[in-house]
Design brief:
- This protein has a 5-stranded mixed sheet.
- The chain has helices spanning 3-19, 44-47, 54-66, 84-92, 104-109, 119-123, 138-143, and strands spanning 27-32, 35-41, 74-80, 97-102, 131-133.
- The protein has 146 residues and is an alpha/beta fold.
- It is built from 7 helices and 5 strands; from the N terminus they run H-E-E-H-H-E-H-E-H-H-E-H.
Length: 146
């Protein structure tokens, strides 16, 4: 598995978000069978769309590319723990695994607006579970917010 490689792509996506005027450096990628399917960054301000989070954008692209709403077997790499909206979208898309860098609580500490509900809490509410790996390349992801 190339977890580091794919998380670094997500980190680069987050860096791209600042080039389009976003103040929230989030990036995400979706991988299936060790192949990059989609990558995206936050473009809420650019598109005037409060749902245009990096994870949502990556899910939308992956569904279009794979021509399905079912992303079973896919891994979502994201620089920050998915918010409740993004986690729910991942769950509905049947993403198998989420790997993220920093926690929602880290982002709140940086003054970013968030709903302080973590993925593990939401994951335990569903009738199926997503495998979750947290703190992956945490320091590099945290640097995005400095």
């Amino acid at each position: 598995m190339n977890d580091e490689k794919f998380m670094r792509i997500a980190i680069n996506e987050a860096k791209e978000s600042s080039k389009v005027g976003e103040k929230t450096p989030y990036g995400a990628v979706i991988v299936k069978n060790d192949q990059l399917i989609s990558s995206a960054y936050n473009n809420v301000k650019k598109n005037n769309d409060p749902t245009a989070h990096a994870e949502i954008n990556a899910i939308r692209k992956a569904c279009e590319i794979l021509n399905t709403h079912d992303l079973s077997g896919c891994v979502l790499y994201t620089t920050c723990e998915p918010c409740p909206m993004c986690f729910s979208a991942s769950w509905w898309a049947k993403i198998s695994k989420i790997i993220y860098g920093i926690n929602i609580s880290d982002v709140i500490d940086k003054g970013k607006r968030q709903i302080n509900v973590n993925c593990e809490f939401l994951n335990n509410k569903g009738d199926s579970k997503i495998e979750i790996k947290s703190g992956f390349l945490r320091n590099e992801c945290f640097e995005l917010f400095k």
